[in-house]
Structure formats: C-alpha cells, structure tokens
Amino acid sequence: NAGTEADVYISVYGERGDTGSRQLLRSQNVKKFLKGQTDTFAVEAVHLGQLYKLVIGHNGLGSGNGWFLDKVIIKDPVTDLDYTFLCHRWLDQGQDDGKIARELTVADTSTFPGRQELELKRAETWAAEKWKFQEGNTLQFYNRLTHGFICLSPDSTVDALGDKKNKYGKVFFMWMYA
Length: 178
What we know:
Residues 1-105 form the PLAT domain. InterPro entries: Inner_ear_hair_cell_LOXHD, PLAT/LH2_dom, PLAT/LH2_dom_sf. It holds the Pfam family PLAT. The structure is a single chain. This protein has one helix at residues 115-129; strands spanning 8-14, 17-18, 22-23, 51-58, 67-75, 82-91, 101-105, 139-143, 148-152, 158-163, 172-176. By secondary structure, the chain is mainly beta. The protein folds into two domains: 8-114, PLAT/LH2 domain (Lipoxygenase-1, Sandwich); 133-177, no CATH class. The strands form three sheets. Strands 1, 2, 3, 4 and 7 form a five-stranded antiparallel sheet that branches. Strands 10-9-8-11 form a four-stranded mixed sheet, with no helix packed on it. A two-stranded antiparallel ribbon has the order 5-6.
C-alpha cells in the first residue's frame, strides 16, 4: 500500500523563481505512483537556475491515497545536472506525521555521496524498531560469548547473569556480538 491513486502535485524552486504548483499527469508508465515503481514526468518551465527545494504532495482523494515517497530526481536539460531530493517518508494522513505534502531540499552530495540517504535509512530503521523500546517491554540480548541472555526489564533492572534459558516468555530478541 505504498502507492497512491491521488492526484500528485509538485512545485520546484530555483534561484530564478519557481514553477508554481503542477500536477504530475503523464508518466512513462501506464499506471503511475505504484509501489516500487519509478515514474518519469516532463514538466515544462522556464529555466530556474540552480534548484534548491521542491514541494510535493497529493490531494488525499481516492482509495488508498497514502503514498511512500523515496526520492525525487530532477534532471535539468539545460545544464545536464541532476538534483536529488530525498524524502523516504509517507505522504499519508494515517501514517508517519499525517502530512500529505512535503518540502524537500536538494541533497548535498559534496561531502559524502549517499550520506543523507544513509541518515534517512537510519532514521527509518529507528522508526520501525522504536516500538520495542516502549514502556512495559522486556528486551533480551543474546551474548554469543556467554551463550546467555542479558535482560532489560520494564522496571529498569538489568539481569546480566547470562541465563541460558528464556525465562521471560514472549520478549523481543536482539543479537549482540561480543
């Protein structure tokens, strides 16, 4: 359910102005905005110079209108430069922070190519795993050295004796390599 049937709009901003809100109508794919798919659109505009941000969103209409957007890449036909805008978030009223539009700034690849994508992946991983650390959960870390478990209990106590059995029943396991 990461795709959308809603109408998607984009505004691109550069040093010489912006495009205004444009609906992305004709993709090179028959069906646009499907999960795992890359869609390509042609947007006519005056040359904006160096690009620095864009705003992308949808109208929230249609069944399954929530959308997970990985990134937007804009190819400037005048300069032949590619501008990457990383999102890696939901545009969905029922997911993430509930926003159906995002303002994205151009990715800076000068210091370390892929660094921002790496940071987004780290943030996404934490967002997916942080529920394990909610109040009331017991965590068990398996230690390969002792072949036992180190348990972090909801009452903030730590059982570091390295018991070889799972005496807590249903818990979350995390592997720790020593």
